[in-house]
Amino acid sequence: SIRDRISNKVKPKIVFVEGLHARVLKAVAILQDEGKVEPIILGNPKDIKAKMEELHLSNVLKDVEIITPS
């Protein structure tokens, strides 16, 4: 699995392009909690933050970088 291949010493940045999908946000929350990656979510920050609130993930994902694609 990807978790096994990631070194604990270096946190790779992983970009998640489907930031409004619940499964993606839940996966990002798990990876963020494990501290193995530095996630970046692509999408509209307002919409993504609303989805995080809906899924009760705002506290877990409060420090996640969200980038609006151009």
Describe this entry's structure for a reader:
- The protein is α/β, with parallel strands linked by helices.
- 39% of the residues lie in helices and 17% in strands.
- The chain has helices at residues 2-5, 22-34, 45-54; strands at 13-16, 38-42, 65-67.
- It has a 3-stranded parallel sheet with strand order 1-2-3, covered by helices on one side.
- Helix 3 (45-54) links the parallel strand 2 and strand 3.
- The longest helix has 13 residues, at 22-34.
- It starts with a helix and ends with a strand.
- 19% of the residues are buried.
- The model has no long low-confidence stretch (mean pLDDT 88).
Total strand segments: 3
Question: Main beta sheet, described?
Answer: 3 strands, parallel
> What is the mean predicted local confidence, pLDDT?
88
Amino-to-carboxy terminus distance: 32 Å
Structural class call reads alpha/beta
Give the % helix: 25-40%
Query: Which strand-content bin applies to the residues?
Result: 15-25%
Largest sheet strand order: 1-2-3
Task: Evaluate the radius of gyration.
Answer: 12 Å
Q: Work out the helix count.
A: 3
List the helices and strands and how they pair.
Blueprint: H1 2-5, E1 13-16, H2 22-34, E2 38-42, H3 45-54, E3 65-67
The gist of it:
The protein is α/β, with parallel strands linked by helices and 70 residues long. The protein has three helices and three strands; from the N terminus they run αβαβαβ.
